[in-house]
Amino acid sequence: MRKNVVILGAGMVGRAMALDLCQDHNVVSVDRDSKALALLSDTENLATRTADLADPREINNAIEQADIVVGAVPGFMGYQTLETVIQAGKNIVDISFFPEDPFGLDDLAKEKDIIAVMDAGVSPGMSNLILGYHNAAMDVSDFICYVGGLPVERTWPFEYKAPFSPIDVIAEYTRASRMVESGEIVEKLALSEPELIDFPEVGTLEAFNTDGLRSLIQTMNIPNMKEKTLRYPGHIELMRVLRETGFFDEQMLQVGDQKIRPIDLTTQLLFPKWKLGEHEQEFTLVNIFIKGVENGLPVEYKYELLDYYEPKTGISSMSRTTGYTCSVITRLILEGHYQRKGISPPEFVGAQAGCYDIVLNQLMDKGVHYKVIKK
To answer: What pTM did the predictor assign?
Structure first.
């Protein structure tokens, strides 16, 4: 039976989810950018609506008839958007990756008797779901996730394109990286502890600390956990130079007769160079390592994902791997497979009996294949 799904945000990932979910549900895509919405026109079971998603009143009007809401706004808008949807009494699956603590909305979500799954992307997202599944079945001692989205063609000077909100990429380079070492939460500088790692199909990449564990720090009692982002070699040094020079600062700076925030100038200069070209080839690479004891024996699981831009649909790899994870979890809720009320990070979904298999199988049906190796 078709349900009504409202997707807040029609960017690259929001568009991919709309095109996926309209195959079996009635979808309304909402954004203030009419050009983004125009890319979804003339699609069966998919309507568009122009609205300012920074205005809670416009969100409430847009979601009035929704059976479930999908949040795909930039991170700086995410918490307020999630709160607005919860206050309206609507179930929601969200991929905005906002910096605030989502559990601050847990009591409200329970009071409103709704399901709110956040961080439902690739990493955070699938990495959390996979760990949640194994943590429920074994004694996990170590978890590490390497993840990156990169263009196939390396173009000077950055050899990088942002496959999701560029402002959220910069936040990864400035926010302290939290990880767990020997049972203690520690903070390290973003872009620190570089590693060079060889990947057979894409060559050598550099890995560095980012704040990707997010909810896992609160929900998982695991002695050692970290996440590292992958880029082409040299990216760390470029970003460190910009950061340490002050180009990512948010405090006002006097320049002649004007006051500006350096981050605003930086984004204006960087984002055109970081924009993926139409039909540009790119890929998403994920390696997840989970170690521990299962049935009394030491065990290690490795998950590998290497996914590329899909030329037939014109949907980027990061949109596929992030968006399809979110749309599959949306279907889990609509079909009654996941019913936990309150705020749910993806590790809660993975721990729910049956959900892990459904998610991996449905992603495989969409061509997003996580290879599992057990040692």
So the answer is: 0.94
